Amino acid sequence: MVDNSVVVEMRNISIEFPGVKALDGVDLTLRAGEIHSLLGENGAGKSTLIKALTGVYAIDGGTINVAGATRTFHGTADAQDAGVAPVYQEINLLPNLSVGENVMLGHEVRGKFGINWKATHEKARTYLKELGLDVDPRSLLASHSIAVQQLVAISRAVVIDCRLLVLDEPTSSLDRSEVDQLFAVMRRLRGRNVAILFVSHFLDQVYEISDTMTILRNGKLEGEYPINALNKKQLIEKMLGRELAELDSISRAATRKIDRTGEPILKVLALGRKGAIEPVDLDVFDGEVLGLAGLLGSGRTELARIIYGADHADHGAIQVRGEHVRFAKPRQAIDHRIAFSSEDRRAEGAIADLTVAENIVLGVQAKRGWIRRVGSAQQDQLIAQYMESLGIRPNNPNALLSTLSGGNQQKVLLARWLATAPQLLILDEPTRGIDVGAKAEIQRLVVDLAESGIGVIFISSELDEVMRLAQRIVVLRDHRKIGELKNSAKTGVDDIVAMIAKEGAA
Amino acid sequence: MTSWLKNLMKKRIMWPVGALVVLILVNVLYRPSFLKITVLDGRFYGSLMDILRNSAPLMLVSLGMCLVIATRGIDLSVGSQMAISGAVALTIISHSPTPNSLATVLGAIGVGVLITLLFGIWNGFLVALLGIQPIIATLVLWLAGRGIALLITGGFITTINSAPYKTIAQGNVLGFPVEFLIGLAAIIVVVLLVRRTALGVLTEAIGINPAASRLAGVRSRGIIWSLYGLSGLLAGVAGILYSSNIMAADSNAAGNGIELDAILAVVLGGTSLAGGKFTLGGTVVGVFIIQTLASTVTFLGVPSANVSVFKAAVVIVVVVSQAPMVRNWFGRQFRSSKTASPTATPVAMERTAA
Ligand SMILES: Nc1ncnc2c1ncn2[C@@H]1O[C@H](COP(=O)(O)OP(=O)(O)OP(=O)(O)O)[C@@H](O)[C@H]1O
Ligand SMILES: [Mg+2]
């Protein structure tokens, strides 16, 4: 029998940052045995609400009830004492220990002579099994993919017998089968009466996994609904407060005629790197969007990185407008007006402690070198132009980048690259972690850029996004290019999926 | 609490400034003449003037240290470099037939400082190009530097008689000690260099996120390399000041332990040893704290054996008061800061969105 008792009740929560009312009278009720999705645009306040719940931020108003008792959190430790034990990915896991040690940390099985490691690992194996994870508990944690590491982190929830699991965008960089695995684990935990809070910008996933949803808009509560109460269109309207702009003009982009008679912007001949990507040929013409499709780990990012010079190519050649070039480091690619926006925004994009303005100007400034500072007038103009055209929120160039929501950080990084006026833009997962509205805006932007003559290499795990934007698609599998196809009205996501599957069977 | 006070409390630099003010007040309490400045023969005299004057070598070294630390580095060799520049300059002057000519002195200083610049570039080469850990890379010169200086002076403490050289540490211009003016000039030059160009912001970018800076096209190597060079150059000038003070090249005593004082000044000023954001203003205040402390210790007659304990006590107070936990506690008292927990890390499982 499923017990629907309330685990956490947050009422009228308000949090204010200097100049921003991040949360304004928001309610959230989490019940045992329920998967609850928290939805909203970038900057709506989802992460802030979670940080209030987990004691990272002190609240300015409202009450938090945990298991019936009102609590005031002065830190994460307080929240954990109250039984709100979110699974932290980075701090709770120790990559140098085994999977079993990580799962059982602090709960090892003790024998007469201290810890009984054999029994500990056995117990870890049972816990993992319970969640359907077939991982050797003696293997080193670091030897597993990020996805598996996440699942190990979640399995700790069973060990410490926590009542509540908080997952803020856990799926943003998982592939489909990994998402399935995660969902299976979530369902099992739900069966054990754990309350789960889930955040994702993939609405299909939200519909697939959750029972209830709470929608935030601009820091205010829009409402709580059973999952079946709203269809996708209604949900988007509630999130954005308006209808999603028509994507018609974007969908026509894929069939736009590209003049491929002249010299391509970029021509890559048998470019490869041992262990990362086998030699690949490709070219990009003026105004063209070239899609790179493939599963996670198929070598898309690796290919992009060696084109850009972020990693060293040990094979092949690159031509920019017919001129032979060698890129030993990103600078040289930048000097040829090539820009690359990394998929790993936090580690390779954001300079968190600098302001939005400094982050936007960084690319242009780096290009000019340190001696000639970009003049204030030019800086202001660049900043105003891109904050406006990309709709960066909050509209405050002096805010620290770290205080922006994930989606807005991504826009700032795009602005950094656009400001350098590239002729070729390599975008690796530019819409990851971005809300539906902003996703459409970024797609629109890519189309506009291409129409203005810029070449774009567009990498995305979402195939329909690639299909919508790219005129040509290069398909990768197992670190190899397995084919290339021209996009037309008749091509669909299925063609690519079939291509990948066929190659696997062969 | 009024909002301007709240804003003031939030400014990082307020903590070191507060510490300095307290230190000065303590001094005034014990010797009311502390703040008194007298004019004699058109010159300013007084304890404050002494502090300003004596702080110059540490000031030069700390400015360089601050920038190096901002790149996630450290320069342990500054003290040894001071010994080298002094040894070079004094050896040249003592061997010159015209030790009192301005040209000789300027030439000697030029060569001395140029050599430490080269040593700084050597450090930068080890760190930026070979990728050696800064603490190890600069330890090499920390160890070898005094030996090199002794080699230059032939193992002796070279002493000289040279009026122009003496002026550096002991002369006055417009009533102010030349040494102080040199320190002041260094502050102005470094601040202009860093904030009028893009050196400052690019240095911060490198220190905050080296991987992202590289992908953004920042020439990290060149910048890190130059900053070690700058640190060497500033240490060289500091060495000249030191040797001019005693009119001797004492390779063992020159700048002995100054690297630690400089690191302290930088940290006291509010720049994190983890690199990234830096504050030259804070570093300047940090230098004054250390120098005032030294003067206080002398005045109070703390036995020299206990000086380090005394110093450590003050440092602990200032550093602890800057610790995030304490600052947050203060913040909570005034409800001006939002972060409740110092151990707070990004939220559970959030991968790319932050
Ligand atoms: N530490 C902070 N200082 C100032 N403002 C902040 C801070 N943290 C968040 N904000 C602001 O609060 C608002 C809500 O941000 P939050 O990160 O909760 O959004 P989100 O819903 O998680 O968005 P995303 O989907 O992009 O992750 C944003 O306007 C953000 O700029
Ligand atoms: Mg978020």
Radius of gyration of chain A: 24 Å
Largest interface: A-B, 74 and 41 residues
What Rg of chain B do the Cα atoms give?
22 Å
Ranges of chain B where pLDDT stays below 50 over 5 or more residues in a row are 335-354
Question: Could you explain the architecture of this structure?
Answer:
The complex is a heterodimer of chains A (506) and B (354). Chain A folds into three domains: 6-244, P-loop containing nucleotide triphosphate hydrolases (Rossmann fold, 3-Layer(aba) Sandwich); 263-337 and 423-506, P-loop containing nucleotide triphosphate hydrolases (Rossmann fold, 3-Layer(aba) Sandwich); 347-421, no CATH class. Chain A has 18 helices and 21 strands. Chain A has helices spanning 46-53, 76-81, 99-104, 117-130, 146-159, 176-191, 203-209, 232-240, 248-252, 300-308, 330-335, 345-348, 356-368, 376-390, 406-418, 436-451, 463-469, 493-505; strands at residues 6-17, 20-31, 35-39, 61-66, 69-71, 110-111, 114-115, 164-168, 195-199, 212-217, 220-226, 266-273, 277-284, 289-293, 315-320, 323-325, 338-341, 424-428, 455-459, 472-477, 480-486. Chain B has helices spanning 3-10, 14-30, 47-54, 56-70, 78-95, 102-129, 134-153, 163-170, 178-196, 199-208, 210-215, 220-246, 258-268, 280-300, 304-322, 324-334, and strands at residues 38-40, 43-45, 158-159, 172-173, 176-177, 248-249. Chain B is globular. At the A-B interface, helix 1, helix 5, strand 8, helix 11 and helix 12 of A face helix 10 and helix 11 of B. The structure holds adenosine-5'-triphosphate and magnesium ion. The site of adenosine-5'-triphosphate has 18 residues of chain A, from strand 2, helix 1 and helix 15.
List the main descriptive attributes of the protein structure presented here.
heterodimer; A: 506 residues; alpha/beta; Rossmann fold; six-stranded mixed sheet; five-stranded mixed sheet; 18 helices; 36% helix; 24% strand; globular; B: 354 residues; mainly alpha; ABC transporter involved in vitamin B12 uptake, BtuC; two-stranded antiparallel ribbon; 16 helices; 6 strands; 4% strand; disordered C terminus; binds adenosine-5'-triphosphate; binds magnesium ion
